Amino acid sequence: MRVRQLTAAAAALLLSAALGGCSDDPGPRAPAPVPAPADPTATTGDVGPADRAAVRDGGTLRWAVDGVPATLNVYQGAATADSALLAHALYPSLFRPDEHGRLVPDPDYLAGFDCTPPGEQPQVVTYRLNPRAVWSDGTPISAADLDAQRIALSGPDPARRTGKAAGYDAIDSVAQGADPYEVRVTFRRPYAEWRALFGPLYPAAETAGPDASTRPPADGGRPSAGPYTLSRYDAEGGTVTVVRSPLWWGDPPKADRIDFLAVRPEQRLDALDQERLDIAPLTAAVDRAAPAAPPEPSASASASASASASASAAPPPAAAPEAAALALRRAESLPGVTVHRAAAASLTQLTLNAARGPLTDPLVRRALTRAVDRRRIADAALTPLGLPAAPLGSHLFAGDQQGYRDNSDAAGPADPGLLLDEAGWMRPAGGGTRAKGGKPLALSLLVPAGSATAERTADALIAELGESGIAVQRVPAPAESFVGEHLAAGDYDLALLSWPAGPSPAVEQRSVYAKPRPDLDGVPEPGGNFGRSGTEEIDRLFDRAAAEPDPAARLGLLQEADVRIWQLGHSVPLYQRPELVGVRTGVAGAGAYGYGWPRFQDVGLLD
Predict the structure, then answer these.
(1) Tens of pLDDT along 204-240?
(2) Which of 306, 324, 516, 553 has its CA 20 to 30 A from that of 38?
(3) What is the rounded distance in angstroms from the CA atom of residue 65 to the CA atom of residue 242?
(4) Rounded CA gap, 531 and 352, in Å?
(5) 567 membership: H or E segment, kind and range
(6) Can you give the pTM of this predicted structure?
(7) What pLDDT is recorded for position 296?
């Protein structure tokens, strides 16, 4: 399943007080200064050296994307991961996640910030904008831009109110402060995740108009405010070109221009081999590599085979994992190309459908969570890709994210057999599949079709659950029907899913675990909760965390929510989704970014 996600940035580190809620100091003070950026290579990703002194000025970089996106506005429903990638080159983000998923200020846009102490109402955040920060038409970035975005994303237009717009409806007002560079944002209710707002920030001219949600990016006269500005947007030709912005005030971009080229994943290894690309995400190219077709027989061979009744059949094509292994070996052997690897900011989990069959019983769900050996699963999924076999023990945090804690012990006794016995699913004396009332404990496992990582994961899951007497039948589903015909319809027992692991789990993850509410016909509507299990208590914990300004208290609420999710048997966290990127030798500042996104002004060609 493709999951749209926003990547994160490696930027400056702040003191722990600044990283959490508002300062504990109740007295008045000036906005806190923003420290200089940290070393961009110091991340949990795998990025090529980005020492600016070693990167030459000039040149063109060619960067593979899935396609020219229909929008560059990440808040629109049509936005893709490529929308976010391009937005990072063109638009401001006041805060960007560091290498551990903590939101820290970007000094190119933010000179300082402050907010009211925890518990003081109303909550007011004061931003001190970088006085040099301007849009590409020369207009300074100002309170008007923040206010227009707030109005657009909290208004009645459903085209603008996507999941990424969370939090803007908590704002009461946005106003200029003591001077044009000070912006005061007043909240109508406490909102702890305010750092996630205004990233990206779009100009008022783009968000305030009635057609802002429908105008194509190629429509001229749309200002930006990044190190690069848009030069060409050719959806038909599959090319987006950005060039150095003449009004950029920060570190000068190293490359003259970057061509983002629409290249299908299955074509990227050839494009790298033929030196038509410099940077190419390869996760899908490897994971979904197609088995090699058998060679076409010659006419004489065909006639001979037809004449011989004893001729043997052609061998079947390689299985998906074997094809993926071949694709990875080819990627690693390409001359002048390095394959960078990282754990992506995306959590892969086994979701349990609590509204169907044996899984309606919480005891069975908890038993299943205990029957899964997460380390064995991670080893099967990640080791073939050259990544550490790091299992997950949290539904809400990635392993390298600040706040991560393994809460899996909350699922109950380690022996799943005891729970299954208690639930009445007994195992025959000679072993085999458990049964209750003459009915076997047999479940379906929905997996993304064509994914080698999913196939390896499914193989390990089927073996492990079989050891506990649970029979599992895999059901591959193509991307176009995975959600609508299976997840949303509830047509599955178990499913392999991936969710983004963002810097604000209290807001970003709530819909995944929110208790389904009845629709007009009284039928529970799952929304984004495909597991279909939830409680009022879990919902309250998420809501309290989203409003809790104290960082330690907020983290405690999220850990308590994770414990309750384990006890509910909603799903089993497995591992972080792998990220593979091919980068040509001599390209600096590019690779597998993990939580980070590129610092585009540093990406370039080495001397």
Answers:
(1) 988 876 566 556 676 556 899 999 999 999 999 999 9
(2) 553
(3) 14
(4) 5
(5) helix 551-568
(6) 0.87
(7) 60
